[in-house]
Amino acid sequence: MRVLAALLALAAPCVAFDHADWDAVLRVRVNDLGEFDYSGLAQDRMRFDRYLKRLAATSPDSDPAAFATDEEKIAYWINAYNALTVEGVLRAYPVRSVRKLDKFFKQPACELGGRTVSLDDVEHEILRKRFSEPRIHFALVCASVSCPRLAPFAFTGAKLDDQLDRRARLFVSERRNVLVDSGAVTISKIFDWFSGDFKSSGGVPAFITAHGGPNLAGKRLRYRSYDWSLNRPGSRALSQDEEEQALANQPSRP
Questions:
Q1: In this predicted structure, what is the pLDDT of residue 110?
Q2: Are 78 and 87 in contact (CB under 8 A)?
Q3: Alpha-carbon distances, residue 160 vs 32, 135, 177, 201, 214 (angstroms)
Q4: Residue 213 in contact with residue 129, Cβ under 8 Å?
Q5: Largest CA distance in the chain
Q6: pLDDT one-digit tens code per residue, 107-151
C-alpha cells in the first residue's frame, strides 16, 4: 500500500503556483499611470494577505516541482518582489518615500517558501544572478515615481515573454525614460545602475532600439535624476520632473 501511495503521488499532476489573488489586487489598486492605492489596500487586505501567506509557504526553491519552467520561476520572483515592496510600504504607511525607511531594500522582508529574504536578495541574488533576463528591470517596481509603471496584472509563466516584452517597450516609449532632444540623449537611471545586465542584448543602446526606441548607437548618454517619491495616486502629477507631469496628463493602460 505504501509503495502504491508513493507511485500515485509521483504520478499526480503538479499544481502550478496560483497568482490569482495578487492579480485581483493589482487590477483594483493600480491606476492607469501605474500608481498604487496603498490607502485603499490597507482597508481591505484579505486577498493580499492570503497571497502573502501563499508566498511564504511555497517558492521555486522550496517546491521546485510546482515551477516547471524558468518562466514560472521568474514570474514568481517578480510578483513576490512587487508584493513584498507593497507590504513594506504598508507597514510604515503613510510614508512619502521608501528612502525614508531604514534599510528598506536590505532588511529581511518576509518569508518566501520558508526562507527569510530581503528585497535585495530577490532582485540581485535570485533574479539577476540566476536568470539572464534584462527585461525584469521593467517589471520590478520599488514603489517610486521613477520606477517602471506597476503592471495592473500579475506575471505568469505562460505569458511571461509577452508580458516582459510589453513592459520593456512601454518603458522605452516614455519620454521620461528615453528622451532625445536637440541631439542630447537622456535616459532612465535604471540603464546606468544595471548596464551590465544589458550586455547580452548588445548593450543599453541596442536594447533600447530593439524595443522600439530610437537608434542611439554612438550617442553620448546622460541619465535622468531618480524621483523616489512614493508611487501613490497623484504622485506623477506632483513630481518636479516635467516628463512625469506630462505622463500624468497622458495616461494609458497597456
A1: 86
A2: no
A3: 21, 10, 22, 18, 25
A4: no
A5: 77
A6: 997 899 999 999 999 999 999 999 999 999 999 999 999 999 999
